[in-house]
């Protein structure tokens, strides 16, 4: 047994299988094509990558750097997190010192600024001035969840790329590929469960596969739902159906099982409801009403209201509908 196996440590698959080139980034054909043409011309503009987690924003940025700079890419690529808790001044100081150090043989370097939407608009304005100051030597690639949270003066200086949640086929192909490489036995219902739990987030799918593979020889539905803190879709559906049928007590007890016994976060339950409602066997009109309630509940939870109380109130309101 090797040292690694004995200690139970293993390389993290999201790093091991992170695409190294743009052409290995899946599910974003149009984006990849545009990015590739920047790289081929060796002429980058500032860029803004907007989209949810685990869709390839960081991967695309590092792939660009690898293609432009080859093996030395890390010398010319600085990754910073905008929400560095030490503040925007620390971020700007690091940008400045990176931009100023002399560099051999390249026209410009890349600064990848993650979570740019975590910055206040004042901080973004300061950042915009810094971008301007160093735009001869540095290209910025910023990533954010929502481009609407980025001030116009920055957006207008960037080429904007929208990363959508990855399609089920793309996620399925990737996890089947990794399972193959790792010699993992992955069942069809295991694939479906991983794809469902991931909801378009490739990081979640791969981490789920790796975690589930540690706990047993076969990765099946059971293993996946146990490990990913995802409720089975049929449990969520059952809970909602009970509420619709007016059996609030049953609905609440299912909610309780999910939160207390399975340890699923209220926010994740909301997220699942939101994603699966159209697959439930309820009339469209009712689905729309449920979605409306889900949205309201989600908003209240984001605003800091107690998750369980809000979810219970939502189920209660469904029970009262006719
Ligand atoms: N489009 C994609 N194609 C292939 N793998 C991907 C893709 N998006 C994400 N991944 C996988 O998920 C991991 C996390 O992706 P990352 O680019 O860091 O996501 P984010 O959009 O949050 O920056 C990567 O290491 C890679 O293994
Ligand atoms: Mg990232």
From TrEMBL:
The keyword ATP-binding applies. One of its GO terms (molecular function) is ATP hydrolysis activity. GO terms for biological process: DNA repair; DNA-templated DNA replication. It comes from the Archaea. InterPro entries: AAA+_ATPase, ATPase_AAA_core, DNA_pol3_clamp-load_cplx_C, DNA_Rep/Repair_Clamp_Loader, P-loop_NTPase, Rep_factor-C_ssu_arc, Rep_factorC_C, RFC_lid. ATP binds at residues 51-58. Part of the RFC clamp loader complex which loads the PCNA sliding clamp onto DNA. Heteromultimer composed of small subunits (RfcS) and large subunits (RfcL). This is Replication factor C small subunit.
């Amino acid at each position: 047994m090797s040292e690694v196996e004995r200690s139970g440590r293993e390389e993290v698959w999201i790093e091991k299988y992170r695409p190294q080139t743009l052409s290995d980034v899946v599910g974003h054909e149009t984006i990849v094509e545009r990015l590739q043409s920047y790289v081929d011309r060796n002429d980058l503009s500032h860029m803004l990558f907007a989209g949810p987690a685990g869709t390839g924003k960081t991967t695309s940025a590092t792939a660009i750097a690898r293609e432009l700079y080859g093996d030395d890419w890390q010398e010319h690529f600085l990754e910073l997190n905008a929400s560095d808790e030490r503040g925007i001044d620390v971020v700007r100081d690091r940008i400045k010192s990176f931009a100023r150090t002399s560099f051999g043989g390249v026209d410009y370097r890349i600064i990848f600024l993650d979570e740019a939407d975590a910055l206040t608009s004042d901080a973004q304005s300061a950042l915009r001035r810094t971008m301007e100051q160093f735009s001869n030597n540095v290209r910025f690639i910023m990533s954010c969840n929502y481009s609407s949270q980025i001030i116009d003066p920055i957006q207008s200086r960037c080429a904007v790329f929208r990363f959508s949640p990855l399609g089920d086929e793309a996620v399925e192909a990737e996890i089947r590929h990794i399972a193959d490489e790792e010699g993992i036995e992955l069942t069809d219902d295991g694939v479906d469960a991983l794809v469902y739990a991931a909801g378009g987030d490739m990081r979640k799918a791969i981490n789920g596969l790796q975690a589930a593979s540690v706990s047993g020889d076969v990765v099946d539905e059971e293993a996946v739902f146990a490990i990913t803190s995802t409720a089975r879709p049929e449990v969520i559906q059952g809970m909602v159906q009970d509420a619709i049928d007016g059996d609030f007590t049953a609905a609440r007890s299912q909610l309780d099982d999910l939160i207390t016994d399975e340890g699923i976060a209220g926010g994740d339950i909301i997220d699942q409801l939101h994603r699966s409602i159209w697959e439930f066997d309820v009339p469209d009109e009712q689905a729309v009403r449920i979605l409306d309630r889900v949205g309201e509940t989600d908003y209240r939870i984001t605003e800091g209201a107690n998750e369980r109380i809000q979810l219970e109130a939502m189920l209660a309101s469904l029970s009262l509908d006719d």
